[in-house]
Amino acid sequence: MINKKYFVVSDMHSFYDELISALSIAGYSKDNESHILIVNGDVFDRGPKSKEMFKFLTSIPKDRLVLIKGNHEYILLNLFNSAFPNNSDFSNGTVYTMCQLASSTPDEARELFISLRDGLHLLQYTSLLSISNKDVDKKLVAQWKKIVRKVKKLGVEEWLKSEEWNNFYELNRFIFTHCFIPLRNPFNIDIYNNFNYSDYLYYNKDWRTDATDAEWYSAVWGCPWRLYDAGFFKQEEDNGKTLVCGHWHTSDFYKYFNKDFNDTSEIFYSSGIIAIDGGVYYKNGELYHPCNVLIIENNKCYNKYGEELKEVNINNEHSDY
């Protein structure tokens, strides 16, 4: 029997080179039958190499890859059915992802993105002045439809809709989600903008089997450390479970639970919750926060350098952050 080794990543956001570098440091090989890659969502948007990310993930044998939906997977799927992107589609990086997937070169992708962005700004400006600009509108919509057709032909939409994608994954004591487990929200309050979670959410012991699609969608949008601190994972933790999440930068976990205000990207590791989103990005042309890899082997956890993770003592007197 092969002893499986699990490599967990999250929120790569089209930073393909950074992901491959981190996986290489961790010793991962897609050709190794004992290596399983778990992706906690948000594979696209923001970074420059969406097409390479897509090709890499679809090249891994399906029985050695676990894909978990994040909020950016939902955003991208919604964009396939949009007549034209809105402002948030641009700011989230989703339009840039579509341009990369539809283009042959990085320069072509940038030019396509700039053309769409400037066209939208022109339409918004003329609309404020009550000036009709039907020619620009018609040209932009046609350009966008062409992009969507190209990306669909590549198979991205079909892939995102496939059964390869999961809402969660459970491995021994670990529960992997993008952000959190689904909760009951009887008043359908926007979880993204209302952090007083205890006022309107409650735990559902049968969430694994009877959570609705709407509850799963809501589960990828909240703040995981606030939800955890509000006690919504307590029953799972009492049963020996640990949540492994992405979605939110690990430094905020350290700030809130440990009063550590250093801008760290290190994995936050505790008995009840493990946060792995290092917030990959560049600052002044240099990689500021590298991609994290959580390695799980024989129920023990390691960082990408093979160092066993030490549990963070959660301070009950939390920061007001």
Q: How does this model look, in words?
A:
The protein is 39% helix and 14% strand. It is of the alpha/beta class. The protein folds into two domains: 5-69 and 167-302, Metallo-dependent phosphatases (Purple Acid Phosphatase, chain A, domain 2, 4-Layer Sandwich), CATH 3.60.21; 83-159, no CATH class. The strands form three sheets. A six-stranded mixed sheet has the order 4-3-2-1-12-13. Helix 1 (16-26) links the parallel strand 1 and strand 2 (35-39). Helix 5 (94-102) packs across helix 6 (106-128), helix 5 crosses helix 7 (134-154) and helix 6 packs antiparallel against helix 7 (134-154). It is globular.
Element layout with pairings:
Blueprint: E1 5-9, H1 16-26, E2 35-39, H2 50-59, E3 65-68, H3 71-80, H4 87-91, H5 94-102, H6 106-128, H7 134-154, H8 156-161, E4 165-166, E5 169-171, E6 174-176, H9 207-210, H10 213-219, H11 224-229, H12 234-238, E7 242-245, H13 250-258, E8 268-269, E9 273-275, E10 281-283, E11 286-289, E12 294-297, E13 300-302
